[in-house]
Amino acid sequence: MRIVSDQERKQYQHVWVLAEQRCGRMETVTFELLGAARRLADRLACEVWCVVLGHQLEEELTSCFVYGADRVLAVDAPELADLLDLPCANTLARLIRKHRPEIVLAGATMYGRSVVPRTAGMIEAGLTADCTGLDIEEDSRLLLQTRPAFGGNIMATIKCSDHLPQMATVRPRVMTVPEADQSRKGQIIREPFVSEDISAAMKLIKSEIDQSRVASLSDAHIIIAGGRGVRGEKGFELLKRLAYRLGGAVGATRAAVDAGWIEYAHQIGQTGQTVQPRVYIACGISGQIQHLVGMQSADLIIAINSDPRAPLMQVADYAVVGDLFKIIPAFEEEILRL
Ligand SMILES: Cc1cc2nc3c(=O)[nH]c(=O)nc-3n(C[C@H](O)[C@H](O)[C@H](O)COP(=O)(O)OP(=O)(O)OC[C@H]3O[C@@H](n4cnc5c(N)ncnc54)[C@H](O)[C@@H]3O)c2cc1C
Predict the structure, then answer these.
(1) How many angstroms is it from 112 CA to the middle of ligand 1?
(2) Is the CB of 157 under 6 A from ligand 1?
(3) Is the pTM of this model over 0.85?
(4) Nearest residue to 267 (alpha-carbon basis) of 248, 291, 284, 297
(5) What does the alpha-carbon distance between residue 271 and residue 266 come to, in Å, rounded to a whole number?
(6) Does residue 320 have its Cβ closer than 6 Å to ligand 1?
(7) Cβ pair 223, 242 in contact under 8 A
(8) Angle between helical axes of 324-337 and 233-246 (0-180°, round to 10)
(9) How far is the centre of ligand 1, averaged over its atoms, from the C-alpha of 289 (Å)?
(10) Closest residue by Cα to residue 268 from 226, 229, 210, 325
(11) 3-class secondary structure, 84
């Protein structure tokens, strides 16, 4: 909605998070966004509302309070059980028109990337996709939305000054999950599902769990990632074995994925996943910016590379110079001795 007067602007209040759930469980990105929303709402002296669309999610609603929500806006209907884009986008647009939030955040996930742009189009709001940082501009109260631009070579900060609500999607694992506060309570507001929100344009035929996602990168504490230096599928077997020994997951650069050595589900970076493990071991990865944006918030980065001048060797906490085909087996041997 285009804002023409200060009076109109004042009617928009609170920071919303569009919750994301799968198979009846809240996804971690919801809690990450609640933490970010809490920080913004504290700056704006307003509330955090969590919008939960789905079916039979009663037990999950209270978890939103624990991670920072003041209110939960819940729409529970069998028609929302499959989380089809159009019914969800129609419902969200209807709720926004009614309650007028100032800011709406969602995960830059398959779900958020598909529902939120549709919603923004319906209500004529601006949307910044794939944000990596959010802040509030002191005097204007505007949301400062930072995201990589021009292929990740610069970071752009975007403001949406003429339209409300200000909408942004944020990649999973970019924000940290806040400490759970079990004593926090809040109010649940229930809204009905209306038949006009159903769309005949979409029908779910079948849903299947993606078996290639066996390595859950997003939840792994240790990630062993390989790049072009790994030289092929056989090289990745070496990494998989190390990951197995350490209880970690395997990641990859786009170069390795494009070469067909490993599935896309393992790709880390601008066009892959963003990860935040405790330990990230990069093997044969040069460290171009498009890769760095996906892993630079790891707690500890170990890089193994034959080229000491590779960019990743400059950002690593431990830079190991040498041939990964000699270093990894030696490392594995040491682990077996422990
Ligand atoms: C729009 C866009 C989006 C992109 N998105 C992504 C993305 O999401 N993720 C991503 O990763 N990339 C992405 N890229 C690609 C990115 O720019 C790089 O091309 C890519 O990350 C390079 O992968 P690499 O490090 O595996 O390969 P290289 O840059 O070729 O590096 C290989 C490294 O291996 C080292 N090496 C070689 N042999 C050995 C050995 N035996 N032992 C130790 N080290 C060795 C070399 O010294 C070198 O540093 C994107 C690019 C564009 C333009």
Answers:
(1) 28
(2) no
(3) no
(4) 291
(5) 11
(6) no
(7) no
(8) 20
(9) 10
(10) 226
(11) coil
Integer Rg of the chain from CA = 22
CA dihedral 149, 152, 154, 160 (to 10 degrees): 30
Say yes or no: CB of residue 238 within 6 Å of ligand 1: no
Closest ligand 1 atom to Cα of 271: 8
Q: Give me the pLDDT at residue 333, please.
A: 82
Q: Catalogue all structural domains in the chain, each as residue range(s) with its CATH number.
A: 6-197 (3.40.50.620), 211-337 (3.40.50.1220)
Give the distance from CA 187 to its chain's centroid. 26
Nearest ligand 1 atom to alpha carbon 323: 42
Asked if pLDDT for residue 215 goes beyond 60, the answer is no
pLDDT of 212 > 80? The answer is no
Predicted pLDDT at 219: 79
CB 69 within 8 A of CB 34: yes
284 lines ligand 1 (CB under 6 A): yes
Q: Would you say the CB of residue 266 lies under 6 angstroms from ligand 1?
A: no
Is 304 in a helix, a strand, or coil? strand
In the chain, the amino acid numbered 123 is I
Q: Which residues of 175-213 are buried (b: 16+ CB within 10 A; e: fewer)?
A: bebbeeeeeeebebeebebeeebbeeeeeeeeeeeeeee
Structure tokens at 170: 């944020």
